[in-house]
Amino acid sequence: MDRINPERFRLLAEQARAGDKGAQSELLRICEKHQLGRRIQAQAMPESYSEESGQFDMTISSGTPVDAFDYETWEYIPRIIIAKGMELRPGRDSIPLLDSHDASTIGAILGRISRIRQEGNRVVGTVTIDRESARGREAEQKVKAGIVTDNSAGFDIIKKRYIPQNEYVTIEGQTYSGPLQIVEQSILYEASLCPIGLDDFALVQARNTTPKEGVQNMEKDLPTGAPPNAELNATPAAAAAQVVDLDEQRREAQAAERERVLTIQSIGRMAGLEPEAVAEAVEKGTPVAEFQKLATKKFTEQNTVKAPAVTVERDQQQQFLDSAADGYLARAGVLQSYASRVKPGYQPNPAHVEFSRASVVGIMREGLRLFGQSRNTHLMSDAQVVREFLTQGRGPSVFHGDSPHVHTTGVLTNVLGEIAYKSLMIGYAVANTTYQLWTRKVSLANFYTHSRVALSEAPTLELNTENAEIQEGLMSDRKETIQLATYAKILSFSEEALVNDDTSALVRVPQLLGTSASLVPNRLVYRILKANGNLSDGSALFNTTDGTLASSSAAISVTSVGVALAAMMNQKGALAADANGEQTCLNIRPRFLIVGPSKYTIARQFITSVADPASNNSAVVNPFAGALELITDAELEQGTSSSTTAWFVAADPNAIDTIEVGFLDGVDAPSMSSEEGFSYRGVKYAVKLHCAAAAIDRKGLFKNSGA
Asked: Does 498 reside within a domain?
């Protein structure tokens, strides 16, 4: 591992202690790069080596004070690691043994360390060498011969205490004086065999391993009046205030640098930049604003041809939302359906690939790290991540339209919402509904009762003789009403489903709910055909007087469909007869043949057969071959008013009004909003669809009860 220039390090440390923000940022970068303050000297015990098993013991932590660099105080101070507070990552019972902390390849794994235990104030583990690996066998021989004795362990500090100058603390029966750092809780994640122990001293080449002067067993040298067995005397107020102020300054610098590094890394991922470019920006201390401009420019250059639909100006939060949601949908295998059925031509953010292997907990963990108040998310268990995510992510959010539109107090809740809403829209788009094919869609601005006007035909132009006055032509109208209603269900994700990464709950359930939402307007339309209710004139939608109902029931045939065609073409306008006693014939032509599943086969044969299906002579032509479009929907055979024999014909909705389907503001898709409340362990969304359907005019419709 690269060493640190000792003179430069000392200079930076002096400047950092003096409050120089630039020096603090640079020093923090060095500390993060070289893991300063997060490694401890370990010691192999060759005398415990077993030839048969290849095992030997290793002292991971000696329990005695050693100097370590603390990048909150920017100086070396003695540190003691409490053995009983050192734990493994959740769910682990061992850690890997690496070659010189090389975590970049599995080839560097020399074995594993298990049976990690406390012996007094020491932490000891049993090493098992990987004898299947050439590097493992080589390491075993060098340990056996006593050639390799230096070792080092990597750990994260979870909780620590700082003992100021001239204060005392007793640990395991021994009393020590400050300044001293006590690591009360820590997470051990690896240990390594090293040519030279990679602790802070070996890295900086500036100090020896002798404990700092004044840090030793103090029982013989305690000043008069100091209690030899006291846990910790009270800190004087003035000293405490001084420590707090200093810590605050250093923490601010540390937080600022971490935020810069994390933000640059996040921007780089979202923009799909090469890792080398991101690392170079971090190394050079590039400001976030400058890097943002660079990332935007490079992203635009790389994607101008391939993905022009991607808007690079979207903020970092929206980039994260899109990438995380698209990545999870790709993992669930439905992203292509969204791109082809919901938003044709949709181009997912290139960074979605990074999330396509992530669990929902992994996405939550990244979201908390980027936008939440929890930075050490890698130390949390899955359950802790979910609970923290749900707690910090509470806030109103709304998704609506054919693409998500988000209004919220925070980005976290919207990650789940984005996944759920896109899944919902997939289900809505792929549902097998047919009402859209032969009805008219209208936009309704509110939930009041709306009047829909069925206009009469225009008056006939009359012969105008010389010097005669041109008469004014009048039209009549008839009004039908339509009123929006709300159809809704609650979509909930339990804490257990989130922890378990249940893709059926997070993707499949919203899909099914989307399909259910799509069936609502479909059901409303076919209920109108089945119910045969009255229009505003008091007559039923289908009746023989108005020529919209067959006088006798008949199966689909050239004859019966011919009757329907004649009835529709002979429909008269609403205006009175002219001077010659003639009313305007509307000459409406049927375009759609509408049947239930029971009549699908016969209807399909009828509209595709060149010859009349009812004739024994193949030379008898079927005049309706290719003349009608077949609509088949199971809703016609559902409910108390259903029929398995009835069939209908309908005109083109652009030629004459038939049935209208209205949506709030014309948005024919469900909306989804988060439901606030703390009694439920999870997250809930209300899925709503605002729609209505009404028959406007009967002239473009015809029914035969069938046989």
From this structure: no
Enter the tokens of residue 598.
């029971």
- pLDDT score recorded for residue 250: 54
Give me the pLDDT at residue 218, please.
31
Q: Are the C-beta atoms of residues 39 and 153 closer than 8 Å to each other?
A: yes
CB 173 within 8 A of CB 206: no
- Domain holding 383, by residue range, is 257-394
| Cβ 349 vs Cβ 322: under 8 Å | yes
Task: Based on the fold, state whether residues 380 and 265 are members of the same structural domain.
Answer: yes
DSSP assignment of 590-620, as one string? EEEEEE-GGGHHHHHHHHH-SB-TT-S-TTS
Task: Verify that 331 and 189 share a domain, yes or no.
Answer: no
Return the closest-CA partner of residue 300 out of 313, 282, 287, 288: 313
Is residue 107 assigned to a domain? yes
Let me know if 386 is exposed, middle or buried by CB neighbors in 10 A (0-12, 13-18, 19+). buried
- The residue among 369, 426, 443 whose CA lies nearest residue 665 is 443
Reduce the DSSP state of residue 394 to 3 states and report it: coil
Long-range CB pairs of 304-312 (<8 Å, 24+ gap) are 306/347, 307/347, 307/350, 308/347, 309/345, 309/346, 309/347, 310/347, 310/349, 310/350, 312/271
Q: What is the pTM of this model?
A: 0.54
Using CB atoms within 10 Å of the CB of residue 427, give its burial: 0 to 12 exposed, 13 to 18 middle, 19+ buried.
buried
The domain total for the chain is 2
Domain final residue, candidates 168, 199, 224: 224
Compute φ and ψ for 30, nearest 5 degrees.
-65, -45
Query: In whole angstroms, what is the distance from residue 659 CA to residue 440 CA?
Result: 6
What sign for the dihedral angle of Cα 543, 546, 548, 554?
positive
Amino acid residing at 353: V
Residue-wise pLDDT for 573-585, tens only, equals: 876 666 677 778 8
Q: Domain ends where: 394, 412, 429?
A: 394
Q: What gap in Å lies between CA 264 and CA 282, rounded to an integer?
A: 7
Using a 10 angstrom Cβ sphere, with 0-12 exposed, 13-18 middle and 19 or more buried, the burial of residue 350 is: buried
3-state secondary structure of 646: coil
* Type of residue numbered 269: R
Here the tokens at position 516 are 């259910």
**Structure confidence by residue, pLDDT tens digits, 333-364:** 888 888 888 888 888 878 888 888 888 888 88
Please report which helix (H) or strand (E) contains residue 95, including its range: strand 95-99
- Check whether 540 has a pLDDT greater than 90: yes
Spatial neighbors of 690 by CB under 8 A, at least 6 apart, are 447, 484, 485, 486, 487, 663, 664, 671
Burial 111-127 (b: 16+ CB within 10 A, else e): bbbeebeeeebbbbbbb
**How far apart are the C-alpha atoms of 506 and 495, rounded to whole Å?**
12
Exposed/middle/buried for residue 661 (C-beta within 10 Å: 0-12, 13-18, 19+): buried
